[in-house]
Automatic annotation (TrEMBL):
It is found in: Membrane. It comes from Shewanella benthica. It comes from the Bacteria. The keyword Transmembrane applies. This is NnrU domain-containing protein. The chain crosses the membrane at residues 33-52, 73-90, 102-135, 156-175.
Length: 185
């Protein structure tokens, strides 16, 4: 559990660091923009790798029985999650309206997976990501980097929906291979 918790703390801390505008600006001023972004990426990757390793090592002891409606809820919400994720990278009306579609997607992904999994490791993973994303949404108001830059275009919304649904389909089909859990059948 220590490895999972270490990865979660590292990953979440580096992603919350940009909310501390003065500290971020000072570090970026000292290192330069590209080295700062490289350091951010390296620390994120180390945290992510620790999360993956730690989740595999952590206890799968059940804390509660997953709710009966949770699995159908995951299947209902996850297409939206992928659409929101894709829309975060395009000048969509979705992004213009929601401002933080990636963080909203993370909240939804974490919440439905938390409801569908009652084990200790899943509770730490999905509960931690839910709290992180919710916190970051609340703190994001202090950052201008989260505000959409371009003019939204309907064609990008269509692209976000189509690509989001395609990615959802690929993840659904590959879920067993990627995460060790079959969600089809």
């Amino acid at each position: 559990m220590i490895v999972l918790l270490s990865g979660m703390v590292l990953f979440i801390a580096i992603h919350l660091f940009p909310t501390q505008l003065q500290a971020r600006q000072a570090l970026m001023g000292k290192l330069g923009r590209v080295p700062y972004l490289a350091l951010f990426a390296i620390i994120s990757l180390i945290g992510f790798m620790l999360i993956i390793k730690g989740f595999g090592m952590a206890s799968k002891e059940q804390l509660w029985q997953p709710l009966a409606f949770a699995r159908p809820l995951v299947h209902a919400i996850m297409p939206l999650v992928f659409i929101l994720l894709i829309s975060a990278y395009l000048d969509t009306h979705i992004r213009a309206k929601l401002k933080h579609p990636m963080l909203i997607a993370t909240c939804l992904w974490a919440l439905v997976h938390l409801l569908a999994n009652g084990d200790i490791a899943s509770s730490v993973l999905f509960g931690g990501f839910f709290l992180y994303a919710l916190t970051d949404i609340l703190l994001a108001k202090s950052r201008d980097t989260m505000v959409p830059k371009g003019e939204p275009k309907a064609k990008f919304d269509i692209i976000a929906v189509v690509v989001g649904l395609l990615v959802y389909g690929l993840v659904l089909r590959g879920h067993q291979t990627l995460f060790g859990v079959s969600v089809i059948g």
